[in-house]
Amino acid sequence: MKFFIDTANLAQIKEAAELGVLDGVTTNPSLLVKETKPYKELLLEICQIVDGPVSAEVTALDYEGMVKEGRMLASMHPNICVKLPTTRDGLKACVTLRKEEILVNMTLVFSPLQALLCAKADATFVSPFVGRLDDVATDGMDLIQQIVTIFGNYGFSTEVLVASVRHPIHVVQAAMMGADVVTMPFDVIDKLIKHPLTDIGIARFMADWKKGGQQL
Fold this sequence. Notes:
Blueprint: E1 2-6, H1 10-18, E2 24-26, H2 29-32, H3 39-49, E3 54-57, H4 63-76, E4 80-85, H5 88-99, E5 104-109, H6 112-120, E6 125-128, H7 130-135, H8 140-154, E7 159-162, H9 168-177, E8 181-184, H10 186-193, H11 196-212
Parallel strand pairs: 1-2, 1-8, 2-3, 3-4, 4-5, 5-6, 6-7, 7-8
Helix pairs in contact: 1-3, 4-5, 6-8, 8-9
């Protein structure tokens, strides 16, 4: 499974990259406007930190605008993956950009049929939002299982990128279901490392070592 970080914050991206487990980055307009640097400069800096897909979302809502923005974003760096909304125009733009060998991440997916359409449009990634489904009393991970099963049935090359991840349990479930990628905020990545029994074990070992008076 690939781990992406869902942020545009350079400090968080650098810290996650130093762990040696980071495979890519996802951003969106909401994340980019939180940072002080111009977004093009910011995206290029992110691409220098992480040697993997960096999703950058278009802001146009029409086919022509999406294709124009997508081409511009893709021309900035080979790692840029153009993020498109899962709409009628988004699907059409996906087909066009993929024919030009531009990476595409179809985002805001909330149903297996949307995911199936994205796969048929040859999207590089499809991003179902599990946390937002949980927010409306629907089990978001059920959607992941459905998409993984459907893609497996037909051998689609589109990768399932689990998005809107809120906690480590989402990551465990996604891994057990065979999802290709999980993108998560830095605080969730940090929580993957921690376990209270690890902390207790370290404290006991150090206490015993101190009592023994040994030196390394």
